[in-house]
Amino acid sequence: MNVLTDNFRTYAEGFLGTLRLTVYASALALVLGFLTASFRVAPVGSLRFLGTAWVTVLRNTPLTLLFFAVLLGLPRFGLVLPFQVFAVLALGCYTSAFICEALRAGINTVPKGQGEAARSLGMTFGQTLGLVILPQAFRSVIPPVGSTLIALAKNSAIAGAFSVTELLGTYKTLSELGYDIVWTFVWIAAGYLVITLAISALFGVLERKWGTAR
Q1: In this predicted structure, what is the pLDDT of residue 201?
Q2: Upper half-sphere CA count for residue 88 (Cβ side, 13 Å)
Q3: Has this prediction a pTM greater than 0.85?
């Protein structure tokens, strides 16, 4: 217990760092995932191509490589931002590809007649998607989106290797101070468990309220 009590501030900084990464990257992933899913089902071929390319590239790129590309590549083009912002961009963009596929799978569960009926009433593609298709698709994508965001929280550990304050990186400081590495990782794991259980509980509430009955 002394590993935690003696270094509570260090753990708290790491925990809050991971929490911030998770919240900001999740928001970015949800926005980009929604836009990309919209592109993938759009009637415009160029938009479908962009959506497909985004998903294909990001889903098949290792996250560590994407971190290198964002943190080391973007400054070469004059974009200099805090490392935490770069980490949010890398995590958010990477996760958006998986959010997109979850949303697209949900869209495919909605009967085609729903969209045809909306178009027959004179609705545009945006109105059909936003008012008819997505509200129905949302009910079936709550569990996979929740699982994807839990994976994002755990993937945030990679940011520690790029000078970003997060929970896993605390082990370096404590190891240098001579603390038992086993208990150091036990409390790190407990911190991740708190975050992932909170996400799971949130999506559990959403699923009970709006989810599709199985």
Answers
A1: 93
A2: 19
A3: yes
Nearest to 169 by CA among 148, 180, 184: 184
User: For each successive 10 residues of the chain (214 residues), what is the average pLDDT?
Assistant: 69 88 95 91 87 93 90 84 90 95 86 76 76 79 92 91 81 69 80 93 86 54
Q: Are 142 and 210 in contact (CB under 8 A)?
A: yes
Phi-psi region of 78 (alpha: psi -120 to 50; beta: other; left: phi over 0): left
- 114 close to 133: Cβ distance less than 8 angstroms: yes
Whole-angstrom distance, CA of residue 96 vs CA of residue 102:
10
Dist. CA 55–CA 48, nearest whole Å: 11
Dihedral angle over CA of 60, 97, 132, 114, nearest 10: 0
Sequence-distant (6+) residues with CB within 8 A of 125 are: 42, 43
Alpha carbon 58 to chain centroid distance?
13
